[in-house]
Amino acid sequence: MSSDRPHPLHPLPPVGRTFVGGFESTHHPAAGVDALEVTGFGDADLDHLVGSGVRHLRFPLRWPRIERSPGVFDWTETDRALEGLRDRGTVPIVDLVHHTSYPGWLVDGFRDPRFGPAFLRYAEAVAHRYPWLPAYTLFNEPFATLFLAGHEALWPPYDRGIDGFRRLLLSVLPWLSAAAACWRELLPEAHHVWVDTAEHHTGTGPGVQHAELANDRRHVALDLALGHDLDPARPFLGRLLADGGEALLDLPPLRVDLLGLDYYSHSEWHYDERGSHAPSPESIGLAAVAEQYADRYRLPLMLSETNVRGLPTDRTSWLRYTLEQYELALSRGVPLHGYCWFPTVDSADWDSLLARAAGRVDPVGVVSIAPDGSRQRTAFTDAWEQAAAGVPVADLPAWRFQPPCDADLAGLLPSLTHWPWQDPDPQQAVSAVRVDLPARPVARTLEEAVPAAEPDLVVLSHLRWPWVWQRPQHVVSRLARQRAAGGARTWFVEEPVTGDVAAPELGSEDVDGVTRVWLVLPRSVVTARDGHVGFDSPAAAGYGDLLAEHLRAAGRSAGPDVWLYTPMALDVAQPLEPGRLVYDVMDDLASFAHAPAGLVLRQRRLLSDADVVFTGGPSLHRGVLPLRRDRVHLFRSGVETGHYAASRRLHRPHDRPVAGYVGVIDERLDLTLLGELAAALPDWTIRVVGPVAKIDPAQLPQAGNLEYPGLVAYADLPEVMAGFDVALMPFALNEATRSISPTKTLEYLAAGLPVVSTRVTDVVDDYAEVVHLADDGAGFAAACRAVLEDDLGARDRRAQPLQARQEWDAIAAEMARLIEDPGAGVSQLRTEEPA
User: Of 415, 447, 463, 478, which is the most buried if we count CB atoms within 10 A?
Assistant: First the structure.
């Protein structure tokens, strides 16, 4: 297969509407298989492409199969595949590394110090083996891949933030540059096709600055590789070049012959006061995005990937839209050399971001995969073949988008008013399923909710039971009372601790109707500087087995219901062999300070595996829905109105006004605002009640009128709030607060207090009529003085409907019903948003 005979076709399509094929091949890091194996790729798939007139093909070389051991290459499979492509008369654009497709012995992925030398060795070996190759992509989507693996912690090595992104760029780009120089020398006639995401970002209000940053960020990998426009004053590049990143300026520029643009509906983002939105409601369209890249780089272009996840009719309409935009770009002089619907055959397992090789079909292909793995033609297959044969765009069907594409793509519709829209044939659509409400009234107490006979409940939580009384304690204490009536026990399992033990052992205590359980580890095995040990700590690897044995020794039946508050406990849950698995998403834990590596990946697994998912607020709910749409139920934070009503009776006049906060003091609080507030209200007392967590207490602002009484028991909170005149929610507006739905909002209102808050999204959405919003210390101070004159009766009348729908008793009762019947219909109590 090392023949050097030239390839019979030109390595690149001409400018115009030439169709290009492609197959998804990303390697599953955890499972050791790739998408080609999972989807059963074979010769028939290639024959279909060639039979449709497609000659150019993005084709993967499977590094994990080629180099199973360092420096030992097996070319058998690759020889056969590439020879088959030549025999069919196709032009392969070989793809050497597609996302996480590296050998398993690179245990730290792109961060592994062996990655760079191994990649260069592999690239050089391929060039020597196949000197006839006409075109190549050395590393697919460098920006997107390293951003997801290094900044977003979605792929190994699960690095996070700009520091993590910088580490991966420094680990990969110098070696990519060296590999490009090697190929330029060994295959001088071959064309280098650089493929990456084609993004565009817009913003209004507070989102303008982030859009500017993201629009600079999208270009950074290619600009560094080309040596293009490396001005340190650029918004994102300047940050990247700090702390050792300046070494990225020393890369020898490589040559790119064609720039491949990967454009999807989610390639355009919009940011505003409500957060981020993708697809963007203000899309400028593929043609305008392609024109931006053409103007910036002055290179030949290709639409190297596009698809939409949906029904065959949805895919057909996206085909029509992108082809229409493609031809519009051509008319504006954009040099587009090919259109690639990617992939040709359905992919699989993107629901877990390739965390698990479960074989779940991803409905994006030209050809669909039937439940038995066979290929299945659809209406989209017909439309794609017609388009590949040259049928004009105007002759392609224009089917109305179906859920969820109709909502996702609503921003495009104003530009498509000229389309001859038609409804899909009923056989090509999926009808909405109508689920009637139960005939009986919705349960208002746990005794009404479910039958008495229940299995044990095991709750795994990152929060400890005796700490701040929050959502887990409110819900679980009520479920525990209900289950105890049927003879079941509730176990509340906490993160490990260290102690004076020779070997790991379990500790436990009975409290508040539950049995607390925790793992005690020898102090010598803990390496974390702060002494914190998570469920995922290597030292705690046997936690799940010890817990399962503990339950068996207590005579408990197998198959308990298992309820998780953190995805990091998923490995602990599995040895318990859960009868039903519940995930209550109470926080966006991945955005918290010191979030563990791999949290996002485990969350996707848990969202996939759970029998029922609860979400703690509208923002969290919106974040979960793209990953899972069935059996997901929104339960906003609740309140125990009767408990806090005591504050009204206990309130007594005091010498000076008090503005108070109750809750955890961590990175979610705007400490600068607190300091400004204390300075702006010198005649007030600012009382911040609660434990300090994950921040250095030395960071807390200090002033003569600022008090930090510390942790207070839940039973004493009414008395604490009775000492307030105004309640505060001084949250920072950052990643850690983007999805929070503060429990304290309704608690403050039940205590009869006026509330002043920053503009947290869920507070604005749900409580704008009863909470005063301010942005800084001066604004908070003005609001505090103003709300003292508020009409308490009027505020109570506005708050009462919110409190009535969100009592913890009713929430726990409805959750219990849904655990028993995960497919139950929507109740008025849950006030869910449409999926």
Answer: 478
